[in-house]
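Anyone? Bumping this.
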Amino acid sequence: MNGFDFKYLLEVFPIIIRALPVTIVISIFSMAFGLILGTAVTFLRRSSLVFLNKSFNLYVSFFRGTPLMVQLFIFFFGLPQIIPVLSKVNAFYASILVLSINASAYISEVIKATIDAVDRGQLEAALSLGMTKFQAMERVVLPQAFKIALLPLGNTFISLIQGTAITFMIGLKDIMGVSKVSAASSYRFLEAYLAVGIIYWILTLIVTRLINYLSYKLSKGGVI
Amino acid sequence: MKKIILLLAVLAALFGAVVFIGASFTSESTGENTLVIGMSGGYKPYTFTDESGNLVGFEVDTWEEIGKRIGKNIEFQTADFSGLFGLLDSGKIDTISNQITVNENRLEKYDFSKPYVYYGAQLVVAAGNDEIVDLGTLKGKKVGVSLGSNYEEMIKTFDTEGLIEVITYESYQGSLQDVALGRIEAVLNDRLAGMTAIEESGLELKLAGEPVEMLFNAFPFAKGNEVVIDEVNEAIEAMYADGTFEEISLKWFPVNITDN
């Protein structure tokens, strides 16, 4: 144990970065599916059918109320006990599936709050112009809601990226998995985890920049 | 309406992309003739990565040799140790090669191959600690074990009054680090891994007393894999007979750990 090995820190970077595509791909796909799923769930929760809104409120409550790791273990190790065909799902797809569902619960909360934040008069005005409820939502309310939602959705994305750090538990070699293995082989814990920490940090900074840029564009009157 | 079609198109494209990319990330060669071997990749010198990130170690060499002898492709799947048995149960790997000790609980659930490593469980303590020499002197102390490993059970069996505080770790190296840092007093693990770790890490540690118990390790398979187990057993016996096991062992350790 002789202090900080700067040389090892530099050596371990390229090794960890080789696993970066896994982390990035999983994060981006999970966010994309999470957004679509989360938006759909929000509408189902706003449905006037009691059965629908109750069950999707339960859905959101469960996936926000339990740790991501628990959800991943239940899906990957637990469910195949009763549904054997699920054991065919490999770690890559299982990670995307669980992360998407988990993210969709948070995203649904964000979208629900931002729809509520759009002044009700907007919806009423759109309806009075003869739009259907769907048109009013799609053309008037949602574009405004997404503008408000952008920053909190950016936060969800950042949490999602960092959430991928647990996927080595089920055998996916992401940047966290590679740094765990590197740390164990070299006994250089500080250096290996510092390196992976810096990589996550840089990813977060890039996402933050991107979100700020989009938000700036939107503030000038553009729509997505 | 246009937007809905657009949304569906985007969704379809996403699914397509995920399936396409997924295929390139996961080397799914689950052909008839492939055995998938699970290991932690973080248990030096059994399974670890070299400077350029390749998986190497005693377990890797052992399986490459077994694969050659039984004429099957060998594929290695690394995962956190705590996830390995889950991968085995859900059929994602065929067996675990990570110094899995045969014990009664495991025998109930899995079929084991013939043992390939014989060893002693060993306590590792800080270099200046002369107080701890066996399980008896551990009373009132904190001892680290690896999560999902056999050592916790070993301590529980001995320590029926619950006087020893067992701390579980995800990583073996992490537990040694904590002994060196003084967070716990000892670690119970495999004697040879302990010797290697002390030598290589430069941590101020030493072996405490004699081995606690003699044990043997083998490869666990899900029940109902008699054919594969027979093939693997045959290879193991042949590797003992022609000295291959001794050779692999001496490549990674100062002594022959496969010696019965």
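Late reply, but here is one note on the structure posted above: Chain A has nine helices and no strands.
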